[in-house]
Amino acid sequence: MTRWWRSTIRVRLTLLYAGAFFLAGAVLVALLYAFLRHSLDQQLTARGAFVGEQLRAHAPPELYERLQEQFRADRDHTLRVMLIASLVALGAIGVAATGFGWLLAGRALRPLQNITATARRVADRSLHERIALDGPDDEIKHLADTFDAMMERLDRSFDSQRRFVANASHELRTPLTINRTLIEVALDDPDTPESTRQLGATLLAVNQRHERLIDGLLTLASSEQRLTEHRSVDLADIARHAAIDSEAAARQAGVELRAALAPAPVTGDPLLLERLAQNLIDNAIAYNVADHGWVALTTGVDGPHALLTVENTGPTVPSYEIPSLFEPFRRLTGADRRATPSGHHRAGLGLSIVRSVTYAHGGDLRAEPCPDGGLSIQVRIPAA
To answer: What is the gyration radius of the CA atoms in the chain, in angstroms?
Structure first.
């Protein structure tokens, strides 16, 4: 059953304030009751003694007893009225005190709410923002300053990592590009022997595999950092462009591409989103059935999320193996590839890049096996 309230710190503080107030009020009422009872008992004793001396010589004893009973009845009535009035006042003031406690707790916790809001913005956008809390030098300000110092160290660390990725991208691609150029020049020479041509073709394929692997690793590293570009794009346009690029590979594999692309606007990095869609389609084509296979692309909006769904026919995928498919260099055990899109060997980073790009855009992934084999992978990204 769903709870209609959340046990927040503000609620607990308010209940603590209210409980302390009611406990102190109850102790005060008990002390006042005891003091008033003692005072009335002393008055009753003194009055009884005085009236007894006055009536002992001139009135019958029964009158003295009736006066004593009347004095005790008046005392009990006074105590009862005082107790009822005190409890009613305690309840009314306690309700008001609970309301004031709620307001005071909210005011005291406002700096924590600011810290939480800043932490959420930092997690969703960038590490440059700071809390910079003003106020007394208390525990909350110490927490905010510690958080700012931690974000400063993280920001420097991510900037260093970004510079390393940029430098590694250049340093790793340059020698591979030189190797590819030298091999292609050697293959273009008409005097090159056939054995050398076969060796050159093999070396060129190996070089292309290394280029694809490095490109995938760099894309994976860049997508796991914060986004440096935020543009309004439509997942439908990106999926359509990726499907057009994959038509040749689909025909080679005997796979039919189907598309039902409704507008799905998002804000993000178009290059990373295009790589996401391309990897999903390439993976769906590569792992498919031999005859009458198909890949279905669907885009649209569901509430606050833009959706990109890719389904395919293919080998049966056990549910327990699905999480491991999104890890780097992991492939489906025992599955044969029907085709290798774009004419390159796959590096085993396709779905891990899909996951990293999705998370970098604040989205999530849902993957489940289709009843007749294959996978259904749905990418959910906050809609623009």
So the answer is: 40
